[in-house]
Amino acid sequence: TGKNxxxxxxxxxxxxxxxxxxxxNNLNPDETFKSxxxxxxxxxxxxITKDKEVIVYCQGGVRAAQTFIALKYILGYPxxxxxxxxxxxxxHKPEPAKYPLEK
Length: 103
Description:
Layout: H1 22-26, H2 36-45, E1 54-56, H3 62-74, E2 80-82, H4 86-90
Parallel strand pairs: 1-2
């Protein structure tokens, strides 16, 4: 239907974004972070490397903060930022042409 159960006015993802399930890929079953080696393998397999600028986001910023910690503090990525407003903010921007979403 194209509707978002979380109430976003528009649905989709930011252009050029790469979807990585943060819970499955960042955390062990006991909710501790996976090892640096495991995290590195996940992110590098998706083309996310230390030399690139990385901006993480999710629906409201919580899972993005988790990914930020994994990249910045466990893996030492120097150019990583958390888009705190995340898709919940972006999808409500009044100018869709200026703030596009891909489906």
